[in-house]
């Protein structure tokens, strides 16, 4: 399995998707920094805290930017064997088809976690610069580390909800279908993130869970977790099943 | 005889279309078996089934004497393959692509990568990403990937596609050497019949999904008919002379050329008759049917599309 992960990582060498995904993960901290600057010049008396920055970062990362980036890297990882026509070269090596899919999901997990850390680090650095120039209340590393744990939990939950995109990438053999689907899902998240009903929508339920907002929605936590697990399992199963049975024409 | 590849009533259907129809292929150990057929004959699908890229609808495949689904990792480590145009990761170099395949195979030594790149003449292209390769270079890398682990069986689908004449000649010599010196069994398909004729030990011909012929090349040469070809100024007059003076009826006419299959007659005598009757004979050749003629006869002309 280590060999499979090593090979998946080797495949990313010189790949444009890696720096692009890092830029995508940095979009949230950059947006937060711009918003903080804009507010500072409009309302100079307002004092920001590190908590505020990370709170907003969590919202943007989980419901908007990072979920789109995760969908893009999922689609890239699972469709490139088709777009670059490599399956007929690597499958007869031989590699078990299930092993190849597991290797991809593990790489996707590592990549997702790395991007989450990039978002957290970006927020910390830009907050640090803001703190040095304008002053930021509660700028403590302990607070930042608490938010790191929350973001990592968010990263794991987001990883669970992106498995359907892997199936879509495999089925459509390209990036377009999963990317359009992810745009639709993000619009759904934007519409539901302020509503109690969002607890039943897997892509906002993950945010509610990390944010601790489930109680206020009136829906049981177990129901939200069950929905996330159901979507995740369906995505994983469809990806494995389709790839295992597929004829390479 | 020990067969390295043996299929029994192998069938592949996509919906109602049968692309491989009950084929029984027998590839003996250490031989070069060439699978011929027009586009869409089912050659690639048959090869894909052997490599587990496509699941057969019915029938069995035996590789090295065992069922192809048993002990997969051990069995397929002994096989190298190219299916159509080889696919590699565009952002990686030739070396990195081979390193990746070696790693997946559990092969960590780099000597074999250097050696295989040298064999196909890509040793100086180590820094160029695959996306910058020409078609011929891609094909060469495909061959390098197929041979890097010194397999006992090579399954090669159109391996010389896109190669220049020198490249074709080099690969032909290399495949012959692999078979004759190292005893590698080679199962190959190609559209370049003249090349196949020079290296193959056995020819299999597929047409519309069926294997219609499986013949040893020695046997094929025995079957090949010889003929004398005359290029004359007036073919109609020449035909009359052949029929009336020589009692020859076994001939074919192609433009100004007449192919006389009845070789019991002396070509000098026929030539003398033509000349004495005022015909201008510009060329006389003693020929033998080649693989292309055999192939055209077998599947009804048109050559391989």
- Greatest chain-chain interface? A-B, 28 and 34 residues
Quick one: biggest sheet of chain A? Answer: none
**Terminal residue distance of chain B:** 34 Å
By CATH, the topology of the largest domain in chain B is: Rossmann fold
**Rg of Cα set of chain A:** 19 Å
Could you describe the largest sheet of chain B, including whether it forms a barrel?
A: 6 strands, mixed
Helix content of chain B: 25-40%
**Through-space gap between termini of chain A:** 27 Å
Question: How does the overall form of chain B come out from the CA principal axes?
Answer: elongated
What structural category do the secondary elements of chain B indicate? Answer: alpha/beta
Strand order in the sheet with the most strands of chain B: 7-8-9-4-10-11
Oligomerization state: heterodimer
List keywords for this structure.
heterodimer, A: 249 residues, mainly alpha, 12 helices, B: 305 residues, alpha/beta, Rossmann fold, Alpha-Beta Plaits, 2 domains, six-stranded mixed beta sheet, five-stranded antiparallel beta sheet, 15 strands, 28% strand
């Amino acid at each position: 399995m280590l060999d499979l992960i090593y090979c998946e990582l080797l495949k990313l060498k010189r790949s444009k998707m890696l720096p692009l995904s890092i830029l995508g993960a940095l979009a949230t901290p950059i947006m937060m920094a711009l918003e903080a600057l804009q507010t500072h010049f409009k309302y100079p008396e307002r004092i920001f805290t590190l908590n505020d920055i990370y709170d907003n970062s969590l919202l943007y990362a989980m419901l908007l930017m990072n979920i789109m980036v995760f969908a893009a890297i999922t689609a890239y990882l699972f469709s490139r064997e088709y777009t670059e026509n490599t399956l007929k070269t690597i499958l007869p090596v031989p590699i078990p088809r299930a092993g190849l899919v597991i290797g991809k999901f593990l790489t996707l997990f590592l990549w997702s976690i790395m991007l989450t850390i990039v978002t957290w680090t970006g927020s910390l650095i830009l907050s640090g610069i803001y703190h040095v120039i304008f002053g930021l209340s509660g700028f403590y590393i302990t607070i930042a580390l608490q938010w790191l744990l929350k973001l990592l939990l968010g990263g794991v939950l987001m990883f669970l909800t992106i498995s359907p995109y892997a199936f879509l990438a495999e089925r459509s053999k390209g990036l377009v279908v999963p990317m359009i689907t992810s745009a639709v899902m993000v619009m759904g998240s934007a519409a539901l993130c302020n509503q109690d009903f969002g607890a039943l929508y897997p892509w906002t339920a993950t945010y509610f869970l990390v944010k601790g907002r489930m109680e206020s929605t009136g829906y049981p936590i177990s129901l939200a977790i069950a929905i996330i697990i159901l979507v995740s399992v369906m995505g994983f199963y469809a990806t494995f099943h389709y790839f295992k049975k597929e004829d390479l024409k | 005889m020990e067969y390295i590849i043996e299929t029994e009533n192998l069938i592949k259907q996509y919906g109602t279309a049968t692309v491989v129809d009950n084929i029984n292929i027998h590839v003996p150990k250490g031989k070069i078996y060439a699978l011929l057929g027009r586009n869409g004959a089912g050659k690639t699908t048959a090869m894909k089934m052997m490599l587990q890229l496509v699941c057969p609808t019915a029938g069995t495949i035996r590789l090295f004497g065992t069922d192809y689904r048993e002990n997969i990792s051990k069995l397929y480590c002994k096989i190298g393959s190219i299916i159509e145009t080889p696919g590699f990761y565009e952002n990686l170099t030739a070396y990195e692509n081979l390193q990746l395949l070696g790693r997946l195979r559990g092969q960590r030594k780099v000597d074999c990568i250097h050696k295989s790149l040298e064999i196909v003449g890509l040793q100086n292209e180590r820094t160029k990403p695959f996306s910058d390769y020409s078609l011929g270079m891609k094909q060469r890398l495909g061959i390098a990937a197929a041979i890097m682990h010194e397999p006992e069986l090579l399954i090669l689908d159109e391996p010389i596609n896109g190669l220049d004449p020198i490249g074709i000649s080099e690969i032909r010599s290399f495949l012959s050497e692999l078979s004759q010196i190292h005893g590698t069994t080679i199962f190959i398909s190609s559209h370049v019949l003249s090349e196949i004729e020079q290296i193959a030990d056995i020819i299999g011909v597929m047409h519309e999904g069926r294997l219609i012929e499986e013949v040893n090349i020695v046997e094929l040469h025995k079957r090949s008919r010889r003929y004398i070809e005359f290029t004359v100024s007036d073919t109609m007059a020449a035909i009359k002379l052949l029929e009336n003076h020589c009692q020859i009826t076994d001939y074919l006419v192609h433009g100004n050329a007449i192919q006389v299959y009845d070789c019991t007659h002396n070509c000098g005598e026929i030539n003398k008759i033509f000349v004495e009757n005022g015909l201008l004979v510009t060329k006389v050749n003693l020929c033998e049917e080649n693989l292309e003629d055999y192939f055209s006869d077998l599947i009804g002309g048109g050559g391989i599309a």
